[in-house]
Amino acid sequence: MPFLSRSIDQIGKDVSKTGAHRDESLTASFDLQTSIKTPKTGILVERLSSFYAKRGKHLFDTVAAFFLILIFAPLMVLIAILIKLTSRGSVFFSHKRVGLNNELFIIHKFRSLHVDTPTYSEKPDSTEDRRITSIGKWLRKTSLDELPQLFNVLKGEMSLVGPRPEMPFLAKDYEASENQRHLVRPGMTGLWQLSPRRRGTIREGIPVDLEYIENLSFWNDFKILLRTFKVFWDNNTY
Predict the structure, then answer these.
(1) 224 is a domain residue
(2) Boundaries of domain holding 219
(3) In angstroms, what CA-CA distances link 229 with 192, 224, 226, 236?
(4) 124 near 100, Cβ under 8 Å?
(5) Using CA atoms, how far apart are residues 99 and 158, in angstroms rounded to an integer?
(6) SS3 10
């Protein structure tokens, strides 16, 4: 079945249910293997050996992230000011995530929850959750809390498109086949993020991430980005 020839809303339903900056402060609490030992065979070899996977994707991410940061800089400054004016605490929420080849990095978001919310508490499923700040409701609805991740992309820790950035305490229990999702950089958006599987458990989304890697190409990334902008526009246009 050709990748993305069907609606992305259907993807996930069709899938079988089957650092240079890395240091001791990041790895002390987790027992992650430092490299992926799972053999890359068949379609993965073809996709990950392509020019786009090895060079082009990172080059595109770097250039695009640089210009997007310039474009959104005034908005990010405004958001930072609003966060400081409406709640106590840091402007940013920073958290450990697993990146390319199991390298750990710090992901950044604009803080949308009150500072006394536990780090690993259940994710709010509604903007009416009392843990969400007043400005946080707007940030979550518009997904603008994700904008600081452009700096992660610029640093080479993330990609504009890729698998969802995983939390280390979940990734350490991955099986070898599941761990293949870390053969590419995690993304700000991606196939899973646009799939109905995002409403299920995190582990149910792994096959979607693996399907993305098996079909990795510039054209597919471009279509995912277009779909992301469409979803953003549809959700924020009245």
Answers:
(1) yes
(2) 39-236
(3) 15, 9, 5, 11
(4) no
(5) 7
(6) coil
Q: How many CB atoms lie within 10 A of CB 153?
A: 23
Containing 109, the helix (H) or strand (E) segment is: strand 104-110
In a domain, 5, yes or no: no
Query: What is the C-alpha separation between 198 and 164, in angstroms, rounded?
Result: 10
Q: How many domains does the chain have?
A: 1
Residue 119 has pLDDT above 80, yes or no: no
Q: 13 lies in a domain? A: no
The Cα–Cα gap between 11 and 194 comes to 9
Question: Strands 159-161 and 187-189: what pairing?
Answer: parallel
Is residue 204 classed exposed, middle or buried when 0-12, 13-18 and 19+ CB atoms within 10 A define those classes? middle
Beta pairing partners, 110 = 92
d(CA 196, CA 211): 14
Give the Å distances, CA to CA, from 23 to 26, 98, 103, 179, 183.
Answer: 6, 13, 10, 21, 20
What digits encode the pLDDT tens for the residues 50-73? 889 999 999 999 999 999 999 999
